Amino acid sequence: MFKKFIITFICIALAGCATTSGVNPDSLSKPSKLTEFTLDEDISELMVVTNALGSKTERISGLTKGLYVSIYEDDNGVFYKGPDNCVIQNKISGGIYLPKSNSVEKPAFWFYNRGLPESERAKAGIIVAIGDSWEEGRVRKDWWTTVSNGLLDAIIIKDSDK
How far is CA 63 from its chain centroid? Predict the structure, then answer.
């Protein structure tokens, strides 16, 4: 009985990991309208992080100063890309996903999956290395961090002149 429970738990955990691999950026639409916003300073605050098991912790997260331009759109929202390494918690390239007014989605940081360098794959273990190589270059929303109201209040979207 315990063995069946463990096997079931592992299958559910792996299925959950598979659904978070992100999407190919080519499968996302270009924005229907180009918009942008500028952050005049880095904005980092204590934000709630929820892991796959529902446990909550807090960590400093946010976005660096700079111009954020709409780059992708899906049915529920718009992806704004910022300067390189703009997602503060991980120093990775991406930006913020802002849902459309009629969406049930929540704001989220997003990033391009980098994959592991060849030199690190052997150290990471087979499951991590294989999964990470599948995801390289994909657009992935950070579903585990709740974006703070302080950051959202600093975003003033305007039409892009680009």
Answer: 12
Ranked by mean pLDDT, the top range of 17-31, 40-54, 112-126, 143-157 is 143-157
Q: Which residues pair with 62 in a beta bridge?
A: 44
Can you give the three-state secondary structure of 85-112, one letter per residue?
A: CCECCCCECEEEEEECCCCCCCCEEEEE
Residue found by looking up tokens 């912790």 in the block: 57
Q: Domain coordinates of the chain in residue numbers? A: 2-159
- pLDDT at residue 4, as a whole number: 54
Q: How far apart are CA 7 and CA 151, in angstroms?
A: 41
Lowest mean pLDDT among 4-8, 81-85, 116-120: 4-8
User: 160: which DSSP letter?
Assistant: -
Q: Is 113 left (phi over 0), alpha (psi -120 to 50) or beta?
A: beta
* Percent of the chain whose pLDDT exceeds 70: 72
CB 115 within 8 A of CB 137: yes
Are 77 and 98 within 8 A, CB to CB? yes
User: Coil, strand or helix: which one is 57?
Assistant: strand
Render pLDDT for 48-79 as a digit per residue (tens, 0 to 9): 888 777 888 888 889 999 999 999 999 999 99
